[in-house]
Design brief:
Aspartate Aminotransferase, domain 1; Aspartate Aminotransferase, domain 2; seven-stranded mixed beta sheet; four-stranded mixed beta sheet; 16 helices; binds 3-[O-phosphonopyridoxyl]--amino-benzoic acid
């Protein structure tokens, strides 16, 4: 199907939208507008078909244009557009929480709803800190993040996050008492490893060093992405997450997995926790929860955490936290329809089936000019290129642009190209993505 070509926007029509995480002036001088989407594809304003190799922004896991989701949202809006969940409720909020608990790692069966990954992270950090106080360990106020971690853009998230540009402008406004584990990217030891790298489990031992420095009695929680997406696909070395879990257990520290990207099938199981066989105490999600159709996030909590709050007189509010739109009816409808699709089409485990094809597609790019590493796990892939001297990021941007011009949408961070196609992707699409990316890399040499 061809999209109706729509007129391009003029500079004056684009002036008011302050675009997020975008070079606004560069974009507005040469805009890339998407106007329609179906299955594996977007259509651009100039009528071109674009193969989506990033599921929008790592979120459209069931592919685009799913009628069931649109219809469920439309029906919900027509019936009841909003209902409060503060001292009130509506049935689909409870149904969704139960459905999510049923696919969660064992024991993570209490669900708090938010509207984004950033809100999920702030919620999880607040729950972790309040939990320590609720169980009489109020001196545990610190949270430990990790270098190169991305946990959204709230003040909590950037404090535990480890991406320089997201932090440096706000350095004076960070959460107190935060420290960071070292990141696990080592091209020196692990270049071109297929799947999880063998070297680096010992990097988790740094948590013992931080405990020796701060004392466990001051640490509430450790938060990591099981696999970091935003920093350019950084994989957990074999045994690393297990080691983190062991150290947290030994010192009675909560472990939080930020599964905003790894959740909902991206790495071959419903959640990264299951794929990597390590169960955290709290898990943050968003993105794939509604297939990106309606903003929504969810924090999964271990029952012991929820139970620790359920004390005192019954009329007391146990957690002073929540959003007007927590469990918004339209978002619940979208999420329930999305879970139906995931179940019906086996999408939450399809990445495991397609991982070998993904792996060979991305590793076929080894040896191309300037390529210094290729990484993959489930339906995630990344190609890292040598930065141009003195102009980091420009090579990555040029490759991204060339791919887009040739009809494939990839994601660029610095000189890394990340791939995370919808989980409905077919092997032929993966081959096409690798072919176009390869041409773009050669064309940028
Ligand atoms: N945690 C993680 C692990 C994420 O990846 C967030 C929190 C924040 O979610 P919200 O919904 O507040 O954006 C994210 C978001 C990219 C990219 O291409 C990644 C994200 C967002 C936009 C772009 O790397 N991750």
């Amino acid at each position: 199907m061809n999209a109706k070509p729509s007129t391009a926007l003029s500079p004056s029509e684009m002036q008011s939208f302050w675009m997020p995480f975008t070079a606004n002036r560069q974009f507005k001088a040469n805009p890339r507008l998407l106007v329609r989407a179906e299955g594996m594809h977007y259509w651009s304003a100039d009528g071109r078909e674009i193969l989506d190799a990033v599921a929008g922004l790592w979120c459209v896991n069931a592919g685009h244009g799913r009628r069931e989701i649109a219809e469920a949202v439309g029906a919900q809006l027509a019936t009841m557009e909003f209902a409060p969940t503060f001292q009130m409720g509506h049935p689909s909020a409870f149904e969704l929480a139960n459905r999510l608990a049923a696919i969660a790692p064992p024991g993570l069966d209490r669900v708090f709803f938010t509207n984004s990954g950033s809100e999920s992270v702030d919620t999880a950090l607040k729950i972790a800190i309040a939990y320590q106080r609720a169980r009489g360990q109020g001196s545990r106020f610190r949270v430990i993040g990790r270098e190169k971690g991305y946990h959204g853009v709230g003040f909590g998230g950037i404090s535990v996050g480890g991406i320089l540009n997201n932090r440096k402008y706000f350095a004076a406004s960070m959460l107190p008492g935060v420290d960071h584990l070292p990141h696990t990217l080592s091209i020196e030891h692990n270049a071109y490893s297929r799947g999880l790298p063998a070297w680096g489990a010992h990097l988790a031992n740094d948590l013992e060093r931080l405990i020796a420095l701060h004392d466990a009695s001051t640490i509430a929680a450790v938060i990591v992405e099981p696999l970091s997406g935003s920093a350019g696909v950084i994989l957990p070395p074999v045994g690393y997450l297990k080691r983190l879990r062991e150290i947290c257990d030994k010192h009675d520290i909560l472990l939080i997995f930020d599964e905003v990207i790894t959740g909902f099938g991206r790495v071959g199981k419903p959640f990264g926790a299951q794929a990597f066989e390590v169960t955290p105490d709290l898990m943050t999600t968003a993105k794939g929860l509604t297939n990106g159709a309606v903003p929504m996030g969810a924090v999964f909590a271990a029952r012991k955490i929820y139970d620790a709050f359920m004390q005192g007189p019954e009329h007391t509010i146990e957690l002073f936290h929540g959003y007007t739109y927590s469990a918004h009816p339209a978002a619940c409808a979208a999420a329930l329809a999305t879970l139906d699709i995931y179940a019906r089409e086996g999408l939450l485990t399809r990445a495991a089936t397609l991982a070998p094809q993904m792996e060979s597609a991305v590793h076929s790019l080894k040896g191309l000019p300037n390529v210094i590493d290729v990484r993959n796990c489930g339906l995630i892939g990344a190609v890292e290129m040598e930065p141009r001297a003195g102009r980091p990021g420009t090579r990555g941007y040029d490759v991204f642009l060339k791919c887009f011009e040739r009809g494939v949408l990839v994601r660029q961070t610095g000189d890394i190209i990340a791939l995370s196609p919808p989980l409905i992707v077919e092997p032929a699409d993966l081959a096409r993505i690798a072919e176009v990316l390869g041409e773009a890399i050669r064309g940028t040499a």
